[in-house]
Amino acid sequence: MPHDHHNHLSPSGHPFRADNDHPLSYWQTMEIAVRELLIEKGVTTAAEIARQIDAMDNRTPANGAAVVARAWTDPDFRAALQHDASVATSEMGFDIGPMKLIAVENTADLHNIVVCTLCSCYPRNLLGLPPDWYKSRAYRSRTVREPRRVLAEFGVTLPETTQIRVHDSTADMRYVVIPARPDGTDGWSTDDLAHLVTRDSMVGTGLPKSPDALA
Amino acid sequence: MTDTIPQADGHRWHDMGGAAAGEVPLADHDFALWEKRVDALMILCSAKGHFTVDGLRRALEDMPPSSFEELSYYERWIASVSQNLVEAGVLTTFEIGERMSAIRERGQTYGDAADG
Predict the structure, then answer these.
(1) Any idea which fold A60-214 has?
(2) What DSSP string describes A11-25?
(3) Contact at CB, B44 and A48, closer than 8 angstroms
(4) H/E element holding A112?
(5) Running along chain A, 215 residues long, what does each successive block of 10 average in pLDDT?
(6) Using the 8-state DSSP alphabet, how is residue B19 labeled?
(7) Which residues form the domain of B87?
(8) Which of B9, B12, B34 is most worth mutating to test chain A (most A CB atoms within 10 A of its CB)?
(9) What predicted TM-score, i.e. pTM, was given to this entire model?
(10) Which of A27, A49, A53, A59 is most worth mutating to test chain B (most B CB atoms within 10 A of its CB)?
(11) Residue A19's closest chain B neighbor by CA?
(12) Rounded to the nearest 10 degrees, how much is the dihedral formed by the CA atoms of B60, A170, B73, B54?
């Protein structure tokens, strides 16, 4: 191999994808062919594709964290989010387009978790592209059947008295979990609170960070 | 391979909710440029009305069950995107095949074969 990344992680802390080192694949060749032909036929342009990728890269879980932290601190916004999450998040600049977004709130007695059993539907406007595990056979198959076991694999163990509610997304309807605000954060600013909100806590496979994490 | 893939009774393979499966693989990876480009092509072509997300899904779900294990996510997507564009009359299989042959002549890695 021309480059050996075995012991190196990317800036985001993930391994480099193996096929960056591999010979040109059949499917990569197809991507190049389709893209070039679409540009030559005037369907799109290289600049438009680059802008789309930039927009994709700019949609990160920080968007969702800002929504959650605001819901924790602004009762009117929380009500608007419960009423119509598509509109409420769009007004913060996180447009979900024609899809319906539903925000589901965790409480002391209820934990929500989101899956897409049929495919990989995900609130991309708030969280970016879905992680590999969200698209895996194991997560898609088992979350609706044994959510407690799936949660345990993510290191989340909830009391038996906590009800778990599983939401199955569709192409037209996406869910985001509003985790419960951690104790010990009275008086915190919205910006500081947002730092406690993780991607997984908004999918339901995790919990917010402890306030000690920022102390 | 197909025989070993568990499926819920009466469901097509992609409708896998409730089926038995192993542990959730928690390893993640950074998306490669070609994968982001596939995603961008899907978004742009659907925004321009050439096909819909339902068309993307239909072609994905009509793949054999083994494709889920043998192809990566965006490999399945580019297969579906190109199929939908052919069905819509935007591209032909001939010109895709011809261009793929030309691209292979350019180099042995994605960087060498792709413009930029």
Answers:
(1) Nitrile Hydratase; Chain A (3.90.330)
(2) TTSSBPPGGGSSPPP
(3) yes
(4) strand A110-115
(5) 45 52 89 98 98 95 98 98 97 91 97 96 95 96 97 96 96 95 96 97 97 79
(6) -
(7) 29-113
(8) B34
(9) 0.87
(10) A27
(11) B32
(12) 30
